Amino acid sequence: MIAVGPRVIPPIEQNEADLLGQVLQLAKVFGWARAHFRPAKTEHGWRTAVQGDGAGFPDLILVRPPRLVVAELKAARGRLEADQQQWLDWFRSVPGVDVHVWRPADWDLIVATLR
After folding, report:
1. Structural domains of the chain, with CATH
2. Measured between alpha carbons, how far is residue 107 from residues 24, 28, 38, 50, 67 in Å?
């Protein structure tokens, strides 16, 4: 079970937004600089303001020199889109970048990675 504020959510039921909140909180505790770009609702649906090749950009960029962690977060049954996979592949091709796809069941790995 993962504590989220006053309630506890079993990992299998935790959605991506809940996982994001937990990871952001954990990263702050362990001294990481954190970046997550939130979409906003527009008349054309949900959009994230970005220029360039932003579609599929990973959910989290975490920096604690000398480390850089790039993470895409998914609910238990969430699937990567092709553009998300492409970004992860690009980051994996950069030496020293630690790239992950994290799901609620990966909590112990997330803690170990960010510790």
Report:
1. 2-37+56-114 (3.40.1350.10)
2. 13, 16, 22, 30, 19
How many Å apart are CA 8 and CA 34, to the nearest integer? 24
Tokens 């480390």 -> residue = 67
Q: What is the pLDDT of residue 27?
A: 97
| Residue spans of beta strands (DSSP E) within the chain | 2-4, 7-9, 33-35, 40-42, 45-47, 60-64, 67-73, 97-102
Digit-coded pLDDT (tens) for 52-96: 677 899 999 999 999 999 999 999 999 999 999 999 999 999 999
* 46 dihedral zone (left: phi>0; alpha: psi -120 to 50; beta): beta
Instruction: Give the predicted TM-score (pTM) of the model.
Output: 0.82
Q: Which two tokens stand for residue 107?
A: 């909590």
